[in-house]
Automatic annotation (TrEMBL):
Residues 34-396 form the AMP-dependent synthetase/ligase domain. Pfam families: AMP-binding, AMP-binding_C. Pathway: Siderophore biosynthesis. This is (2,3-dihydroxybenzoyl)adenylate synthase. Gene3D superfamilies: 3.30.300.30, 3.40.50.980, Luciferase, Domain 3 (2.30.38.10). Keywords: Ligase. Residues 447-522 form the AMP-binding enzyme C-terminal domain. It comes from the Bacteria.
Length: 540
């Protein structure tokens, strides 16, 4: 047994043994899963993207050839590689090539910009950064130039498409070479945390734990070889990647269709053409789909399951899914750190529309606690703590933060406020962490505050959520200016120039002279949110 990558906390041996004995961890790697599927049903279609259709055999061969080429470039097992690819077929050949090589993808989102990407590259000491040439009007090669200037350790920029000054992905296909299999208990890749701190946190996931969550999720969603999964959300996100997502579909031998955008005008023709059976959305998109589906311009009759998660889906909208789309709603309450809850396909409509589901397995330990970590009475609301066979025991290289984000006995503090129904289902009632959930996109308040504080006219800043009928929440930055307030637009432009992803730019800026304080002298974000509703009442 080899040790885990340094900087990655792991499960104590007694838990690891238990999870193996219970059959959760089976000692498989992602590379082996693909190999086995290619041998079993090589001619089935694995990936559809635009006019490309790759069979399992083709995906398998491409991964082998790319792995050889990446190795020839000098990329070694455990090297970190920041992967920022949108929903294109190359995403998956790159993933599996890296898995086979034992190199570790760091999954960035297409929306990330130079502030985030430079940080990921520097913090993980990445040797390579893999991008598309362009995507929805944005040129990732110019982003890569900025990142390369800021992170000298980055040795390679690899481009799917027109590479410009960088290395074309297409130049890397080489004759397959013999590679040693990575250890299933070692880290396979890094996911990003939604975060609640000043700097983003990285989540180490192992082959063993992630394959378990993917396999069990595929079973819960009843995926098989006839399943067709439409990947409409960005594939790098934990939800469309693993719940059961693209990897679950692959595990089951089904077909994944990659949608370049999640809008009905792009997704509906794909559902009709490819006879899609299951897809996953965040609540704002689900509402757009419900409105568009009423027009009935496309045949969506193949759709059996619509998964909605990432943020709370209102009961009102949830009730519209079956009558409007003729399929089952599945609520999914998950997190990149591990724990995923699903309503089950055969649950009563009442459970499906009023809860966020229950954990994958009874070995997902759930505790609902008060401020002093004491368990609340059954059915009462409290903070959710969890521990289990696919929930991490700590973030990558974050010892100090880990001692706060995990209990001493290894429970992850999710920061979510929930209650458990008599059926054992979770209902998300709120949040205790300092994060804004902008329609499923997570914004760590402190991260944005730190960027605002870098502006010369800003004395202090506090970022809070404001309710929004469409996104659920939007962001508002309260700013104490040093002197006369600068134009709000100059502050948001400043954040953009610093290379912050667009979804983190405050939707609204309010100038104040001081922040309301709590009893212990901390900024009261609750009082700030109330300030806003008062100001709105005055201006309306
Ligand atoms: C309320 N809040 C939710 C829900 C997530 C599957 C599905 C989602 C994610 C995800 C994921 C919610 N109702 N249905 O990784 O595999 C909020 C909670 C949670 C945080 C995690 C998956 N579903 N949330 O959203 O890491 O606050 O993962 O702690 O991006 O999203 O965010 P993230």
């Amino acid at each position: 047994e080899t040790a885990l990558l340094p900087g990655c906390p792991t499960w104590p041996e007694e838990f690891a043994t238990r999870y193996r004995q219970a059959g959760y961890w089976r000692g498989e790697t992602f590379g082996q899963v693909l190999r086995e599927r290619a041998q079993r049903h090589g001619e089935r279609t694995a990936i559809v993207a635009g006019t490309q259709r790759w069979s399992y055999r083709e995906l398998d061969e491409r991964a082998d050839r790319l792995a050889a080429g990446l190795q020839a470039l000098g990329i070694k097992p455990r090297d970190r590689v920041v992967v920022q690819l949108p929903n294109i077929a190359a995403f998956f050949e790159v993933c599996f090539a890296l898995f086979r090589l034992g190199a570790l993808p760091v999954f960035a989102l297409p929306a990330h910009r130079s502030a985030e990407i430079s940080y990921f590259c520097a913090f993980t000491e990445a040797v390579a950064y893999i991008i598309p040439d362009r995507h929805v009007g944005f040129d990732y090669r110019s982003l890569a130039e900025q990142v390369r200037d800021r992170v000298p350790g980055l040795r390679h920029v690899i481009v799917a498409g027109d590479a410009g000054p960088f290395t074309p992905l297409s130049s890397l296909y080489a004759s397959p070479v013999e590679l040693s299999e990575p250890s299933p208990s070692d880290v396979a890749f890094f996911q990003l945390s939604g975060g609640s701190t000043g700097i983003p946190k990285l989540i180490p996931r192992t082959h063993d734990d992630y394959i378990y969550s993917v396999r069990a999720s595929a079973e819960i969603c009843q995926l098989d070889g006839s399943s067709v999964y439409l990947c409409a959300l960005p594939a790098a996100h934990n939800f469309p990647l693993s719940s059961p997502g693209v990897l679950g579909t692959l595990y089951a031998g089904g077909t994944t269709v990659l949608a370049p955008a999640p809008s009905p005008d792009v997704a509906f023709p794909l559902i009709e053409r490819e006879r899609v059976t299951i897809t996953a959305l965040v609540p704002p998109l689900a509402m757009i789909w419900l409105d568009a589906a009423s027009a009935r311009r496309h045949d969506l009759s193949s759709l059996r399951v619509l998964q909605v998660g990432g943020a709370k889906f209102s009961e009102e909208a949830a009730r519209r899914v079956r009558p409007t789309l003729g399929c089952t709603l599945q609520q999914v309450f998950g997190m990149a750190e591990g724990l995923v809850n699903y309503t089950r396909l055969d649950d009563s409509e009442e459970l499906i529309v009023t809860t966020q589901g229950r954990p994958i397995t009874s070995d997902d330990e759930i505790r609902v606690v008060d401020e002093d970590d004491n368990e609340v009475a059954p059915g009462e609301t409290g903070q959710l703590l969890t521990r289990g066979p696919y929930t991490i025991r700590g973030y990558y290289k974050a010892e100090t933060h880990n001692s706060r984000a995990f209990t001493s006995d290894g429970f992850y503090r999710t920061g979510d406020v929930v209650r458990v129904t008599p059926e054992g289902y979770l209902v998300v009632e709120g949040r205790e962490k300092d994060q804004i959930n902008r329609g499923g996109e997570k914004v760590a308040a402190e991260e944005v505050e730190n960027h605002l504080l870098a502006h010369p006219a800003v004395h202090d800043a506090a970022v809070v959520a404001i309710p929004d009928p469409f996104l659920g929440e939007r962001t508002c930055a309260f700013v104490i200016p040093r002197e006369a307030p600068p134009p709000a637009a100059s502050l948001t432009a400043f954040l953009r120039e610093r290379g912050l992803a667009a979804f983190k730019i405050p939707d609204r800026v309010e100038f104040v002279e001081a922040f309301p304080k709590t009893g212990v002298g901390k900024v009261s974000k609750k009082a700030l949110r109330e300030t806003l509703s008062r100001r709105n009442a005055v201006s309306n």
